[in-house]
Write a structure and sequence with these properties.
The protein has a single domain, classed as RbsD-like domain (RbsD-like fold). The longest helix is centred in the middle third of the chain and has 11 residues. It has three helices and six strands. With about 130 residues, it is an alpha/beta fold. The N and C termini lie far apart (about 30 Å). Helix content is about 20%, strand content about 20%. Keywords: Carbohydrate metabolism, Cytoplasm, Isomerase. It catalyses: beta-D-ribopyranose = beta-D-ribofuranose.
Length: about 130
């Protein structure tokens, strides 16, 4: 049994399959998701798990070289959720961010109910 890190076996497996430049989304409970095997749905009830908890776990395991967020998040509570990310962060419209879901290798749905609490993370390499 794992001592630490991501215990959800499906999420752990999917993260281990990512390569350089692959997109991983962490999204709120309201994001319209494609019917796809790229989705790992962690949402239990409204607010559980939080975006922050999932974001911390995923970014703790994943090398991130860039991120994309909705420009509409600026000035909203959601923009504080990814504060401190140490990579370039691009802003696009919320509609453009949703359109990017089709290119995702992994989409992780949280129980977060904060508007615009969605981010696309581009995998980097740790060497």
């Amino acid at each position: 049994m794992l001592k630490r890190g991501i215990l959800n076996s499906e999420l752990n497996r999917r993260l281990s399959l990512l390569g350089h430049t692959d997109l991983t989304f962490i999204v709120d409970a309201g994001m319209p998701l494609p019917v796809s095997d790229t989705v790992v749905d962690l949402a239990l009830v409204a607010g559980v798990p939080t975006f922050s908890d999932v974001y911390a776990a995923v970014t703790g395991a994943l090398e991130v070289e860039g991120a994309t967020v909705a420009s509409e998040a600026k000035g909203h509570e959601a923009s504080q959720l990814w504060a401190g990310l140490e990579c370039p962060v691009q802003e696009v419209s919320h509609e453009a961010l949703k359109a990017m879901l089709g290119r995702a290798k992994l989409i992780v749905r949280t129980g977060e109910c904060t508007p615009y609490a969605n981010i696309a993370l581009r995998s980097g390499v740790p060497f």
